[in-house]
Design goal:
Structural class: mainly alpha
Shape: flat
Radius of gyration: 40 Å
């Protein structure tokens, strides 16, 4: 009986994918068995490198480069912004409170300052005695011991309050823009105080004398209520002081990338119209002269703000402003305006005096 024949040939290998092929191995179903993949053995040299066996580990990927513009800019959530706002409001109110206590110690002297424009206007109109009328028994106490100290405390604490404003917006600024903190506080507080001085020594004094003198000789005797006088005083002082912040507002809009000098110049006619309307509201009189007196400084301040914004843009672009040429032309313009003013004053019979309104006949 013949013995079965078995093929003793060695297994074949696929040279392309290193798959072991059994040509004579059949499964129970009568089909050839699935090919078995052979996993290649790891390279010993590579294994030693990955296990720290003397090889150099691969260099980790470099971290993403951080934009220099974002350097120093804080990232805050909405709730963190609210908490920061609450903190700055408390600090600002605390500063006003400390200034109020200091002003309260000098309430009599401060009331004398407030009364001086009324007394000067009444004396100029030959009203004797130059006094204000008390209507309600509580008016004197409320004004002299509460309202007047608060008004002066606002001006006295304005640098501290404006610093809190800067501290609130500074987290959203770039690191190089945070250097404007000191100039911002000094210029904004200075303009606010200068606006109050302009209103006190020029606008309010002249306007009050004009208003009180309208009824003289027409059967009307000036009798000013102290409460109404102080309300008008506060409106003019704070109104002009806030209006003098126009350059700071335009500078902040440019700093926060909300506006640009080109945009401001292109829409300057609308800004001038708004300034004239605002001046008509805060002017204590209804004549054109006082309207011009209020509107002209506001328009000048508007263009000063545009100029400050332009300087900021030049610094961002790392360009320099030609200060030499600017000051030369500025002096030429100022001298020309002075000569024209003197010639016009002489032609119309005016002469210069060292008090307001500076030109009198």
């Amino acid at each position: 009986m013949a013995s079965p024949h078995y093929d003793e040939s060695p297994p074949e290998y696929n040279n392309y994918d290193e798959t072991y092929m059994q040509t004579d191995d059949w499964s129970a179903s009568g089909q050839p068995a699935e090919p078995v993949s052979l996993t290649p053995l790891p390279d010993p040299s590579k294994s030693s490198q990955s296990l720290g066996g003397g090889g150099t580990p691969p260099k980790p990927p470099d971290p993403p480069a951080e934009d220099e513009e974002d350097d120093g800019m804080a990232r805050m959530s909405f709730l963190e912004h609210l908490e920061e706002l609450r903190k700055r409001l408390i600090l600002a109110m605390a500063g006003v409170g400390v200034a109020f206590v200091l002003c309260l110690l000098f309430s009599d002297e401060l009331w004398a300052i407030v009364f001086e424009p009324a007394g000067a206007a009444l004396r100029a109109l030959h009203v004797n005695p130059p006094t204000l009328k008390l209507i309600s028994p509580m008016d004197a106490f409320q004004i002299m011991w509460m309202k007047v100290p608060v008004l002066f405390a606002v001006f006295l604490s304005s640098p501290w309050v404006l610093y809190q404003v800067w501290a609130f917006i500074s987290p959203g600024l770039y690191k190089k823009e945070k250097r404007y903190a000191v100039p911002f506080v000094l210029s904004s507080a200075g303009l606010f105080i200068v606006g109050g001085l302009f209103a006190y020594y020029i606008a309010f004094r002249y306007g009050l004398e004009f208003l009180l003198g309208m009824g003289i000789g027409k059967g009307i005797e000036p009798g000013v209520n102290v409460n109404e006088y102080f309300d008008l005083f506060v409106d003019v002082m704070l109104g002009v002081g806030v209006v003098f912040e126009i350059p700071i507002l335009l500078f902040l809009l440019t700093l926060l990338h909300i506006a640009s000098p080109a945009f401001l110049v292109r829409h300057s006619r609308y800004a001038i119209l708004a300034i004239v309307i605002l001046a008509a509201f805060i002017t204590p009189t209804g004549d054109v002269f006082n309207l011009t007196l209020f509107a002209t400084p506001m328009i000048v301040l508007f263009y000063v703000g545009i100029f400050a914004s332009y300087i900021l843009v030049l610094r961002r672009e790392k360009r320099r402003f030609p200060w030499g040429t600017f000051f030369k032309w500025l002096m030429i313009v100022l001298v020309s305006l002075a000569i024209i003013s003197v010639l016009v004053a002489k032609y119309y019979g005016y002469h210069v005096v060292f008090r307001w309104p500076l030109f009198v006949r």
